[in-house]
Specification:
heterodimer; A: alpha+beta; Multidrug efflux transporter AcrB transmembrane fold; Hypothetical Protein, Haloacid Dehalogenase-like Hydrolase, Chain: A, domain 2; Gyrase A, domain 2; six-stranded mixed β-sheet; four-stranded antiparallel β-sheet; 14 helices; 19 strands; B: alpha+beta; Alpha-Beta Plaits; 2 domains; elongated
Chain lengths: ~525, ~300
């Protein structure tokens, strides 16, 4: 009698039944799993973006612009402080470029008092003076880190809100490294729309139009101080159309909006209806009541949406933004306004989008290839190792594949296209363990051992080799998981799972089957 | 039951070492030269750039598509058929400039294609990678391969002895070199999936090597007096049947993947197929044969 302990029998049976049951939902129709067999739902495999379609976006938060913003406001404060200090500090060429504020002092003696002026405004800045009285103001490292950390966290929050508004199932939004955000949007029908939404900072504000200034002068480069030259853009061509000179002073900020929705005005034109919070409503009421008959501009990310004339004071905090909207652009703007402004602009560093039709083709091709792989390997094993050992190897191969499938589901791992390749490959390599065992049994048998001795020794001697050899594949898979990205990680996962399930199926399952067969039929020859 | 290798096969592998080493040396040299002079056809993962897979319905030709996007001033464009007749792969070189230069170019391409073909064109896949990310991916890829080699070296050293580890590493480097050489010579796209394939080849080749080494170690203990050449030959021959059977089943599975797994995975499967063949060859003709030259320590305890 060959010995196969009872606890092993129970273990093998339990795991095999588990493999069969929990791989089932991936072969059955969705309705069945959702209704009558809902306990199997955990076995359903989550498909990667390359198989179900969707978008993978790697975004960079341009937080340097926040430093520029902060330095710009510092510049205003500095000008004021230097003018008001006694004695007055003279300077020239004050400008902000990138993450640096520079100016030149008229008198060398002022270089000590300027430090005090700066410290009084904010301690977080670093000031350098050179021999020619050139001053350079930078942000401290700690401050930069604080700003960019805040920008990342805030951006993630805003992205999440925008994505949720558009409604995609199970989006993944996570921080990556110092300044990047990874966004995965599965099964997205219109990736274009979400990309457009993410591309907008959506900083909106209401500012008065400077009607005393001449637009011609501004266009020729003489923009009056305290004003900006901004343009309305043509919705269709995307080109600058109407120029406006607009005061820099913000009347009411978009941050004070609490709601925005697309609707139709009395002329049946799409508009965005907005509502301010209490303090925003008060400010908006004051602004409109003081400026009846004048123009004010609605500015979004430095572009003028529209610049209507105020006909009457608007109290109550509700209003409508008109513009060259289609219903779609009106609803997009509403989404942006509801979700809030990004702290800094985002750029897409990397995108990988797969349409649903390609995803489906890939699944079908992958499954087809997998089934053919199984059939070919099964036939080969039958030819080489015969009806007994061959069948044992084949049963354990099939359970092995089912086990990988059910583990992928249970562990909530993501199956990608390379992952499917990993499964197909495991089919080829999994039988290796059985091949090692069977070849060993052949050898032992040839060396004159009894059948029982040959089988026992075959498993025992091959065990060490199998473990040693499989650890190399496992190592490769772990390294791949560590360094790989996206779909490649999926390959590493199936490969690693494949190694583990292969150990089980060859060392326990096929041994169990062979023991069962041998003890039951007491064959006179092994026929291997 | 079928035996591809007869039970008492005894091929003199070690005697062939001059032949096999020469072949390997020539192929390795050719590979290195190919990588240097022809260069690897790097995909957008490593080079940056734009890739679009489109499906067209009415008879839109490559020339028509090229005509639409060639005046966008976006640099070098390549368009090829992909899978079925009406599917095309459009590749555009990396756009210089700011971080969002790729994004702007993609929008321009899609706008002009939509304008020209509107409903007749479907975007099946869109990928673009900017310069910062592609640099990161190159770094990660190189690191992964180096780490894999070090990990294997350490593992073999730990499980066997240093001489074995040296043999294994020479074989590994040989396999990687030949795979990269093949990619350079055939001009196949070298991308993230290729790096994954190389790591897998590393794993597989080691797997094969370990099986032979395991037998060599066993025989070193069993037959202390046997001449090393004979012992190596004996070990390789004893595991030959296993080596061939496993190689065949893996090739069957990968062959199915290559032929039926779809266009995207085909190059990946091809790289692995090649790697399996090279890996099997190297575990016999390099990893094991090289043990003749390194000092394989034989255990000192007295023979039983």
């Amino acid at each position: 009698m060959l010995v196969f302990e009872n606890w092993k029998k129970i273990l093998v049976l339990t795991i095999s039944i588990f493999a069969i049951i929990f791989s089932l939902p991936n072969f059955l129709s969705k309705e069945l799993t959702n209704n009558s067999l809902s306990f199997l739902k955990s076995g359903e495999i989550r498909l990667g973006l390359d198989l179900q379609g969707g978008s993978y976006l790697l975004l960079k938060v341009e937080s340097e612009s926040l430093q520029t913003d902060r330095l710009n406001s510092l510049a205003d404060e500095l000008r004021l402080a230097m003018r008001n200090s006694s004695p007055k500090i003279g300077y020239k060429n004050l400008k902000v470029s990138g993450a640096k504020l520079t100016f030149t002092l008229n008198n060398k003696e002022d270089s000590s008092s300027i430090t005090n002026v700066l410290v009084n405004i904010d301690k977080e800045f670093i000031l350098n003076v050179d021999d020619l009285n050139n001053i350079e103001v930078l942000m401290s490292e700690a401050k930069i880190k604080e700003i960019s950390d805040y920008a990342i966290l805030q951006s993630i929050e805003i992205i999440r809100r925008r994505v949720d508004e558009v409604g995609t199932n199970e989006p993944i939004i996570q921080r990556q490294g110092d300044d990047r955000i990874l966004v995965q949007l599965p099964g997205l029908e219109e990736p274009e729309r979400i990309k457009k939404l993410l591309g907008k900072t959506a900083r909106m504000n209401f500012r008065m139009v400077n009607e005393t200034a001449s637009v011609e002068d501004a266009l020729s480069g003489r923009v009056p101080p305290g004003s900006d030259l901004l343009f309305e853009f043509d919705e269709r061509t995307g080109e600058k159309s109407v120029p406006y000179v607009i005061y820099k002073r913000i009347g009411v900020s978009g941050e004070q909006l609490i709601d925005a929705n697309p609707s139709m005005d009395q002329n049946n034109q799409p508009v965005v209806s907005i509502r301010f919070d209490t303090s925003g409503a008060r400010k908006f009421g004051e602004l409109t009541s003081k400026n009846v008959g004048k123009r004010f501009a609605i500015v979004l990310d430095g572009e003028v949406i529209s610049a209507p004339v105020i006909r009457e004071a608007i109290a109550g905090g509700s209003g409508q933004i008109s513009g060259n909207f289609t219903f779609e652009t009106a609803s997009d703007l509403s989404v942006l306004l509801r979700a809030g402004a990004l702290p800094a602009p985002l750029t897409i560093l990397e995108e990988r989008s797969v349409g649903p039709s390609l995803g489906e083709d890939s699944i079908n091709a992958g499954m087809y290839a997998g089934i053919i792989a199984v059939i070919l390997v099964v036939i080969y094993m039958l030819i080489i190792y015969g009806a007994r050992f061959g069948v044992a190897a084949n049963i354990s191969l099939i359970v092995n594949v089912l086990l990988i499938i059910s583990l992928l589901g249970i562990l909530d791992a993501t199956l990608t296209l390379p992952g499917l390749a990993g499964i197909a490959l495991t089919i080829g390599m999994a039988v290796d363990a059985n091949v090692l065992i069977f070849e060993r049994i052949r050898e032992e048998s040839r060396a004159g051992r009894s059948d029982i001795g040959a089988i026992d020794n075959g498993f025992k001697e091959a065990f060490r080799t199998i473990v040693d050899a499989n650890i190399t594949t496992l190592l490769a898979a772990l390294i791949l998981f560590q360094f790989g990205s996206g779909p490649v990680k999926g390959f590493a996962v199936t490969l690693a799972l494949g190694v583990i399930t292969t150990m089980f199926s060859s060392l326990l399952l096929s041994r169990g089957i062979i023991t069962f067969w041998y003890n039951k039929f007491k064959p006179t020859s092994l026929n291997i | 039951m079928l035996r591809l290798i007869s039970d008492n096969t005894s091929v003199k592998f070690i005697r062939l070492k001059l032949v096999s080493f020469s072949i390997s040396a020539i192929l390795s040299l050719a590979s290195i030269l190919a990588v240097i002079f022809i260069g690897l056809n790097l995909g957008i993962d490593f080079k940056g750039g734009i890739l679009l897979e489109v499906r067209t319905s009415s008879n839109i030709s490559i020339a028509k598509i090229r005509n639409e996007i060639s005046n966008l001033n976006i640099g070098e464009i390549s368009i090829q058929e992909f899978g079925q007749d009406s599917d095309y792969l459009i590749r555009v070189e990396r756009q210089e400039g700011s971080d969002n230069a790729q994004q702007i170019a993609v929008e321009a391409i899609k706008a002009s294609l939509n304008k020209a073909f509107s409903k007749d064109i479907e975007y099946r896949r869109l990928e673009y990678v900017g310069p910062t990310v592609s640099k990161d991916l190159v770094k990660d890829g190189v690191m992964a391969i180096i780490f894999a080699i070090i990990a294997m070296l350490a593992y073999i050293w730990f499980r066997f002895e240093l001489p074995f580890a040296l043999g294994a590493i020479v074989a590994l480097v040989h396999d990687i070199t030949l795979t990269m050489g093949l990619f350079a010579i055939l001009g196949l796209e070298f991308n993230l999936a290729t790096v994954a394939a190389i790591l897998l080849i590393i794993g597989y080749s080691m797997n094969d090597t370990v099986v032979v080494y395991d037998r060599i170690r066993e025989n070193l203990r069993k037959f202390k007096k046997m001449n090393l050449n004979d012992l190596l030959d004996k070990s390789i021959n004893e595991t030959l049947s296993r080596t061939i059977n496993t190689t065949v089943t893996t090739i069957l599975a990968l062959g199915a993947l290559y032929l039926f797994g779809g266009q995207i995975i085909a190059d990946f499967a091809f790289a692995m197929l090649w790697g399996i063949v090279v890996g099997t060859y190297s575990s016999i003709f390099i990893a094991s044969t090289i043990l003749v030259y390194v000092n394989v320590r034989r255990t000192k305890e007295p023979e039983s």
